[in-house]
Amino acid sequence: MTDTKTIKAADAAFKVIEEWGVDHVYGYPGGSFDDGMNALYNRRDTMKFIQVRHEEAGALSAAAEAKLTGKLGVTIGSAGPGAVHLLNGLYDAKHDHAPVLAIVAQVPQGRMNMDFFQAIDEGPIFDDVAVFNRTATTAKGLPALIDTAIRQAYKYNGVSVVIIPKDLGWTDIPDTYISNAKNHVAPIWPQPDPVAIDKAVELIEAAEAPMVYFGIGAKHSGPELKAVSEKFKMPLVSSVLAKGIVEDTYPAYIGSTGRPAGKAGVELGFNTDLILWVGNDVPFSIFLFNPKAKVIQIDIDNEKLGKRHAIDVPILADAKTALAALAAKGTELQPTPFFKAALADHKDWRKWQDSFKDDKSTPVRPEPVFDAINKAAKDDAVFGVDVGNININFMRLIDLKTTQKWTTSGQYASMGYGLPAAVAAQVAYPDRQVFSLSGDGGFAMMSQELLTAVKYNLPIINIVFSNQTLGYIEAEQRDDTHQPLSGVDLIDTDWATVADGMGVKGFTIKTYDDIKPVFEAALAEKGPVLIDVKLTTEMPLTTQHMFIDPAFQDADKVAEFKKQYQAEDLKPFSTYLKAAKEGKLD
């Protein structure tokens, strides 16, 4: 008879995590997590601990990595305050459907549920954010609990939380558990109903103004989206998160719709009579389209069918498969006036934006800076994008390639996301160029993570757009609620000096003439850099309250709007549609 080899329960837990292919975790140590830190030390040759400077950043990094890679992100937090700090990043993962595992420490079992140092009832605080939320009750069961949590995170594309009382992790248990990692296989999605495909094609062929509206659920379907667009002459409009599935320079990709979008994408939504709605769950969608338009919806989740808009044809299937089935049916259509007008409208919008690339205003406009970013970004660059006006400028001004990646806090929209996301991107893709793009408001929230970049020599190119205001909120107060500006002003900060103090090489752009030399110098550096752009306080053109068409809007308001945004050269969609119907766009 041989003795069974034993292992500390915390070591067994991280052994399971490693068997699932995880080779690093994000977090910040605490006394209640000493057992976990000891286990990570014991696995230091095969699993790296990424020490962030705030638990929220660790959770945001784990969420961002899961969104970028599709693989499990892992973060840890100590008992009490460390646990609470995790919540914001975990909610980002929940809202954007990212598989994340949070290992949360707890005081020893004998000290739980009483007035003890850092003791709180942790379980309930994670109930809403997690698809799986359990507190370990035995040391021996811990590896199986971790294994189950990971399977649940993958199954539901959400957050799994495992709370571990400190004493359990130090307990010796038999080293016999074998994880389920080897049994994990990709799901098989349902095939589209041929009858539904035929009905969809019939509706598309009968429509006068059909368009495609696709979301992140179509992320592997770029060629199929193009095939449907080209066969049926349907312009492509995406959600914000779906930017990059089709390259921005593709003529029939009109961009996004909604507030961060360009003018043309917004106009199409109100002029369409049929929408092919693909892998999209945008909550604002009900406000973005003609409510009388017919809708064909493709989704792998039957709960999503009809969730955001009344639909005429539901198709329960993977986007790639369903789009390919549509493209294989019917006959190729000729371009409609709607299609021609959409392309012309978008072309003029891009021309208008490009007219500001050489604008020498001081403080600088965003267009010359984003032009420099487009030129500097490599074909495999990765962008971590914060929340606010940076979303608007990124959506409109970055010409994303399908070989590039980006991530932002989508449906949760948490400020402070950009830098932790860039940390995750550089950790996940050490050989790729990584940018973090933030406004001065969002960057201030997580700026301490520059120290993380320094500690691990992550050569992130951090760009902070400083305009001394919470621009996105300022625009809401001014345009939506028409109230006095309140609480949105920010003090001017010398972010380059802040960066230098943290060990990051800092640069400042104050004028147009600074842009080229600063980018050249920043790109020549080997470690992390920060570029502080002193940006104009002028707001981006609003598509939410757009006065552009004198045919049905007040002429004085149109004139005022165009003057405010220097948009005199922009024509409304109706102008292009009229020209197309008269054969003037052929």
Please give the structural blueprint.
Blueprint: E1 6-8, H1 9-19, E2 24-27, H2 34-42, E3 48-51, H3 55-69, E4 73-77, H4 81-95, E5 100-106, H5 122-125, E6 130-135, H6 142-156, E7 159-165, H7 166-169, E8 172-174, H8 194-206, E9 210-214, H9 222-232, E10 236-238, E11 253-256, H10 263-271, E12 274-278, E13 294-299, E14 313-316, H11 319-327, H12 337-354, H13 366-376, E15 382-385, H14 389-397, E16 405-408, H15 418-428, E17 434-439, H16 440-446, H17 450-455, E18 461-466, H18 471-480, H19 495-502, E19 505-509, H20 512-524, E20 529-534, H21 555-564, H22 573-581
Parallel strand pairs: 2-3, 4-5, 5-7, 6-7, 9-10, 9-12, 10-11, 12-13, 13-14, 15-16, 15-17, 17-18, 18-20, 19-20
Antiparallel strand pairs: 1-8
Helix pairs in contact: 1-2, 1-6, 3-4, 3-15, 9-11, 10-12, 12-22, 13-20
Enzyme class: oxidoreductase
Keywords: Pyruvate, Thiamine pyrophosphate
Family: Belongs to the TPP enzyme family.
Structural class call reads alpha/beta
Give the tally of β-strands. Answer: 20
Tally of individual helices = 22
Strand order in space, largest sheet: 11-10-9-12-13-14
Q: What is the share of helical residues?
A: 25-40%
